[in-house]
Amino acid sequence: MASVLCLLAVLLLAAAVVTDAVTIVVTNKCGYTMWPAALPGGGTVLNTGESWSIDVPVGTRSGRVWGRTGCGFIANGTLGQCQTGDCGGTLACSKVGFEPITLAEYSLATGAGGADQFDISLVHGFNAPMSFLPSASRCARGGPSCPVQEITFNCPSEQRRVAGCGNPCDGKSSSCGPNNGTEYFKKACPQTITYPRDTTNTVFTCPTGTNYKITFCP
Predict the structure, then answer these.
(1) What is the CATH number of domain 21-216?
(2) Among 38, 41, 202, 216, which residue's beta carbon has the most beta carbons within 10 A?
(3) Using one digit for the tens of pLDDT, what is the confidence trace for 137-169?
(4) What residue segments make up the domains of the chain, in order of their start?
């Protein structure tokens, strides 16, 4: 009897471990190397065709994943600086100010019957095409996708950055809108936030415990 109870306790513990974390698989389908970063999760390097699996605790309220490009190494073999998507991460910014960054943002609910929320944000600009989708079909809605062609082709010359397109509204008031150079962000990625106080972005939802897949160059 004691052995049965012990086995039951182990199985319950294993079940708790499984349901207390959500797995996010990040895949690089670009024809170039990406250095994705995540909070929580840290960072890694992904060559073309490679994937990175992150286990995120259920209840994480401000998770995010973003891609960095053009990263370099310093003398001891660790990452130094990246050209884009670097600010706010584990590396130093390659220049002053916000770097263009495409963010996958999410909030994982707790408890039975709760709902996760996720979207793609372009608050500081665009640097990498990205999709953010549930890995199962149990969600009421799909997920966001942000392509590269329309944004890069329509980026005004004064907003062009190394491998990205900067947002002209960074740090400006809520009056910064479509007539201030953000219309192409909304046109290409209608689910995104295009400036800090834009509240018109679409937030997607899935039941608690759903796993997700993020793809660069989907």
Answers:
(1) 2.60.110.10
(2) 216
(3) 777 667 899 988 888 888 888 888 877 888 888
(4) 21-216
